Amino acid sequence: MGTDAITDEELMLRIGDGDQTAYGILVDRHLSLNLGYATKLLGNDAEAEEVMQEAFIRVWKHANRWDPERKTRFTTWFYRVVTNLCYDVGRKRKPQEKVEILETIASDETSAENVIAVDQRSKQVKKALDELPQRQMTAIILCYFQGLSNREAAKVMNVSLNALESYLVRGRRNLADILREEKDSLLKEIG
């Protein structure tokens, strides 16, 4: 049986029995996606890598308590672990520390004008996301950048589906307001 046929939940049971191979498989499956997620939340590669190290240490330490009857999938549980660790890092920061929230958006177009335009849009979105309250930013990143369903994102954030949808609505509205203000300010400078 190939490793793709083994579920994450089965791997957790094996890890709970001390199976290092199962641990390696789980790390291979989830490191890249979750590292990207942590980087988006924190805007700092080094901090995101530290979060991932701690998250996988927790997988190893807590795997023996994994309940195969629980209704939560491993991926949902792990996103919650990573999210909470990112929140912890964010709380420890000094208020004046500003870090970028999203990686640079890549463009399929290679012309200089397109590269500049994409870079400017990326910076505007990064700045706007940085101004959002943490819960709104997290909801937007989970749903729009990580591709989680609203239900999955609500479980990760440990909130009701209604609360998650409220964060999304307020987050989108706040993003639009921030970006509109920036556009208006830029037009005043030009005009």
Structural class: mainly alpha
Distance linking N and C termini: 67 Å
CATH architecture of the largest domain: Orthogonal Bundle
Helix content: over 70%
Beta-strand fraction estimate: under 5%
| Tally of DSSP β-strands | 0
What does the overall shape look like? elongated
The rounded Rg comes to 19 Å
Name of the top-level CATH class of the largest domain: Mainly Alpha
Query: Spans of 5+ residues with little confidence (pLDDT < 50)?
Result: 96-112
- Average pLDDT metric: 81
CATH topology of the largest domain: Rna Polymerase Sigma Factor, Chain: A
H/E series: HHHHHHHH
Q: What's the quaternary structure here?
A: single chain
Number of domains as seen in the coordinates: 2
Most strands sheet = none
Number of helices: 8
Topology:
Blueprint (H helix, E strand, L loop, with lengths): L7 H9 L3 H23 L2 H18 L11 H19 L19 H20 L2 H12 L4 H8 L3 H30 L1
Q: What report would you give on this structure?
A:
This protein is mainly α. The chain has 2 domains: 1-99, Rna Polymerase Sigma Factor, Chain: A, CATH 1.10.1740; 103-191, Winged helix-like DNA-binding domain superfamily/Winged helix DNA-binding domain (Arc Repressor Mutant, subunit A). It has helices at residues 8-16, 20-42, 45-62, 74-92, 112-131, 134-145, 150-157, 161-190.
